[in-house]
């Protein structure tokens, strides 16, 4: 039973991991919805998006749902595979907006650095931590991907999370969600994977 559970979680997480680069390469059809669940009726999820709009998303058959669990800077170690949204700093380098520590089974999935819409001019880097230097005020991690390196500073208080299993029952009114959706020619949205907030932890990506 334990092996079956691990396999199910790995499959679910895999679908989420590969969704990131696919969305980046097909930006004209990809929409990332961040907001709060208003209602779920059958296979339709209504979300109050952070921009204030009410968005309806058709949930595909075989929907994969994950939640986020709180983690800490001290959990980030060399060899870990992470996804970090960051912004350029005025003094140079990048500063983290949020950090997602991927489960070990997903190492290497969606590797690379690409534009992200968490904030204007932000980017997302999925890479392996090759070096992690901790200081009183936070950490600086060196990320390695496709033969390149990128240093990102992580200040204390930066949201740091990992992924855990969730179910459709967690998509209740008031829950925070991050949805990777596809936009059809008629403007309708559909999705096969999403991340939901649980136990007070909000998806920071």
Structure described in brief:
This protein has 1 helix and 12 strands; from the N terminus they run H-E-E-E-E-E-E-E-E-E-E-E-E. The protein has 205 residues and is mainly beta.
What report would you give on this structure?
The protein is mainly beta. The chain has two domains: 2-68 and 166-196, Beta Barrel (OB fold (Dihydrolipoamide Acetyltransferase, E2P)); 77-161, no CATH class. The protein is built from one helix and twelve strands, in the order αββββββββββββ. It has one helix spanning 2-25, and strands at residues 30-41, 44-49, 54-70, 81-88, 94-101, 112-115, 123-135, 138-145, 148-155, 160-165, 176-183, 189-196. Strands 1, 2, 3, 4, 5, 6, 7, 8, 9, 10, 11 and 12 form a twelve-stranded mixed sheet that branches. A hairpin with a 5-residue loop joins strand 11 (176-183) and strand 12 (189-196). The protein is globular. It starts with a helix and ends in a 9-residue tail after the last strand.
